Amino acid sequence: MLVENQIIHCQIFIFILAYPQSIQTAVGDIGGSIEIKCSVFNANSFPIAWLKFEKEDSTKTTVLSIGKELIVGNSRFSLEVFIENGTISHILKIKNIRNTDIALYRCVVMCDDVDGDANTSADIELEVNRPPLILSSSSPTVVIAREGQSSRLECYADGFPKPRVSWTRQYNGILITGGNYYRGNVLRFFNVTKDDRGTYYCDAVNSVGSHVQHIVDFRVNFAPVLTVSKIMYTHIEPSKQKVDVQCLVEAYPAPKIEWLYNGVVLHNDNYNRIVETATEYQFTYSTLNFLKIDNDRYGNYTCKARNMIGTAEVTNIGKYSFH
Fold first, then answer.
1. Which domains, and CATH codes, for the chain?
2. In sequence order, what are the residues at sequence separation of 6 or more whose Cβ sits closer than 8 angstroms to the Cβ of residue 290?
3. Is 274 in contact with 288 (CB distance < 8 Å)?
4. How confident is the model at residue 300 (pLDDT cuts 50, 70, 90)?
5. 91 CB contacts (<8 Å, ≥6 apart)?
6. pLDDT of residue 232
7. CB 220 within 8 A of CB 252
8. Greater pLDDT, 167 or 87
9. 47-89 pLDDT, tens per residue?
10. How would you write 164-225 as a 3-class SS string?
11. What DSSP state is assigned to residue 46?
12. What are the tens digits of pLDDT across the range 234-254?
């Protein structure tokens, strides 16, 4: 592959005329080869050099060649120089291309004079076709936000061509943007609710290789919500009847749940047994089993749940006679 850069005119008596042009891009494949050509008209005796500037840190510069001499000690690099019709061409050749070759390459005509630096140059960016790679600047795999506050999920990917980044939600759920698909790097939550919690998928794809996915578990801290409380009679025969009072608590972090009878905290004993079962998505069932049924148990029963965010309770859910 041959990429020819802009022609730089450097006339005698150090008069320099460079035709402005946007930076060109040369694209190669991993393991492939590429040639970058710089042609200079009327360069006379002025030396021409190839420089390499690291893409991530342009202060890191490597001199690859000066004049006809290849400076860099890397067998993958070679230099060809020829003159034709008053134009001198310096062709920088790179074989067995690697990701480390991604950089800005500068062809410099070193036309110094007594008044200072009068160099002129032209640049070519070398890119390498590569599949998407999720960058460490993306959100971590677990993000925790508090209900009512703002938050964001971020996903960034490297690769060439530039990957397309999109977000979806588990079970094809609705995103904060209003649909079930969003193209962009950042999902913004301006007023987080508990319904925003769940698993989010960031997909990055380009025309090279397969797509990559970044999974984020978005957790929301919120105070307990008692969504269900009921009495269940588990046997039709009165002599065998068993009564369970059940309380469904939704909260994150996981709450501490207590049962109270007329304001007194209940514990497992000969009369009661308390069983808790945690389910997916921060739901906890707390069941109060009555082991003995008689009118002595008549009164106010309270299901109370609390975590670091807040407290909630439901009272009188068991105010009844056991006849």
1. 24-129 (2.60.40.10), 132-221 (2.60.40.10), 223-317 (2.60.40.10)
2. 242, 243, 244, 245, 271, 272, 297, 322
3. yes
4. confident
5. 2, 35, 36, 37, 38, 79, 80, 81
6. 60
7. yes
8. 167
9. 899 999 998 887 899 999 999 999 998 999 999 999 888 888 8
10. EEEEEEHHHCCCCCCCCCEECCEEEECCCCHHHCEEEEEEEECCCCCCEEEEEEEEEEEEEE
11. -
12. 555 655 666 788 899 999 999
Cα–Cα distance, 158 to 61 (Å, whole number)? 23
The pair of structure tokens assigned to 151 is 């938050």
Q: Is the peptide bond before 161 cis (omega within 30 degrees of 0)?
A: yes
Residue 215 CB burial class (10 angstroms; 0-12, 13-18, ≥19): exposed
Q: Locate tokens 């060649």: which residue? A: 65
Residue that the structure tokens 């042609």 belong to: 39
Q: What's residue 42's pLDDT?
A: 75
Asked if 3 and 24 touch (Cβ cutoff 8 Å), the reply is: yes
Query: Residue 109 carries which side chain, given as an amino acid letter?
Result: V
Q: Which of 195-209, 212-226, 271-285, 286-300 bottoms out in mean pLDDT, i.e. has the lowest?
A: 286-300
Radius of gyration of the chain (CA): 36
Cα–Cα–Cα angle for 227, 152, 219, nearest 5°? 35
Ramachandran sector of residue 203 (left: φ over 0; alpha: ψ -120 to 50; beta: rest): beta
